[in-house]
Amino acid sequence: MAGLRPDSPLPTELILHAQSRVLEVHFDDGAQFRLPCEYLRVFSPSAEVRGHGGGPLQLVPGKLAVNIRAIEPVGHYAVKLVFDDGHDSGLYGWDTLYELGRDQAVNWQDYLNRLAAAGLTREA
Prior knowledge:
Blueprint: E1 11-17, E2 22-27, E3 32-36, H1 37-42, H2 47-50, E4 68-74, E5 78-83, E6 91-93, H3 94-102, H4 104-118
Antiparallel strand pairs: 1-2, 2-3, 4-5, 5-6
């Protein structure tokens, strides 16, 4: 994982809302994002989703009800999200979480379009 850029916003708070399956992330530049667990799971920075060596983004269907079981700190630069479907190999660096929040609307619409084109659904 690339290091943080010197001007990168840093998280000040991570709040898991388990019942609504949302991770709320606050950054020191004032940005706040509410990231659904499903969104974080299907856009995991893991090789399983991102491909080995930067390959194409893999389509991960059927994660509508996925939740985060644990949030584990990784140094001062990331967290490992442990999902209740067993996925736990993605390290979410601060830059990644910020970008996922900033680009959520575009990313999500692209995901929904790719699911529809493949004839897949969000349901398990």
